[in-house]
Amino acid sequence: HRFTDNNIQEIISTFELNKDSVIVTTEKDAMRLKEYKALESFPIVYLPIEVDFIQDKEKFEKLIHNYVESN
Questions:
Q1: Is 60 exposed, middle or buried (0-12, 13-18, 19+ CB in 10 A)?
Q2: Which of 1, 12, 27, 37 is close enough to 46 for a disulfide, judged by CB 3.0 to 4.6 Å?
């Protein structure tokens, strides 16, 4: 999500009504929110992004390795 100025203002307004809280977001959006100086002093916490393979991790790694070697 690309935050608009209206989104940032809404975050600020919501937080100001709940000053004892924190802003919880994904790691990806936390990095995007860092771009806004208006949020510098706000307590922003994020959930880290993790990748997990259910099956065939080795097959995936081989596919990537082969692609990189050929390009």
A1: exposed
A2: 27
This model's pTM is above 0.90? no
In whole angstroms, give the CA distance from residue 34 to residue 38. Answer: 9
Task: Give the pLDDT of the chain (71 residues) as one tens digit per residue.
Answer: 789 999 999 999 999 998 889 999 999 999 999 999 999 999 999 999 888 888 899 999 999 999 999 99
> Other C-beta atoms within 10 Å of 8: how many?
16
